[in-house]
Amino acid sequence: MSSELQFKLINTDPELFNKTAESIAKTFVKKDKARIQGVSRTQLRKMYENVSAIKRETGEWENKLPKVKMIRSQVAYSVARAIANNKGLKEYYSKYRTFMDYSIKQINTEEEFKTFCTLFEAVYGFYYSFGGANI
Fold first, then answer.
1. Could you tell me if residue 59 is left (phi over 0), alpha (psi between -120 and 50 degrees) or otherwise beta?
2. Is 42 contained in some domain?
3. Mind giving me the DSSP string for the chain?
């Protein structure tokens, strides 16, 4: 596991939403003089909206947790399709899947899920600033 993915979803580390999120986002996109490549903004936005929809749901946490755990399979599916369509993006999509897997596996409480939502929002913001808006 790479060093940027050695974090815990505990909302006591302010750097989780700053340096850690920035480091993770950098693995999703690469910008050089000729081009920008990485995880598509459509893929990332779709999953971000899915996570946000679960967060907005009312009701008991026990009813939300299975939907949260299901995110892993949704990411696995979308990553497999993306890599099948463009093998040159495997590095970026693999890092995205690793981030999502590592995060979702840690979630057992609603507080951990809320922390993940905030982290994902921070990662998405940094991703966008690194050129993800143009993919």
1. left
2. yes
3. --GGG-----TT-GGGGTHHHHHHHHTTEEE-SS-EEES-HHHHHHHHHHHHHHHH--S-HHHHHHHHHHHHHHHHHHHHHHHHH-GGGHHHHHHHHHHHHHHHHH--SHHHHHHHHHHHHHHHHHHHHTTGGG-
Which residue type is seen at 82?
A: A
Contacts of 20 (CB under 8 A, 6+ apart): 4, 7, 13, 119
Residue 103 belongs to some domain of the structure: yes
Chain Cα centroid distance, residue 62: 22
Number of domains the chain contains: 1
> What percentage of residues in the chain have a pLDDT greater than 90?
79
- Parent domain of 104: 36-134
Instruction: Indicate the pTM of the whole model.
Output: 0.91
The answer to whether residues 4 and 24 touch, using CB atoms and an 8 Å cutoff, is yes
pLDDT (tens digit per residue) in 50-90: 999 999 999 999 999 999 999 999 999 999 999 999 999 99
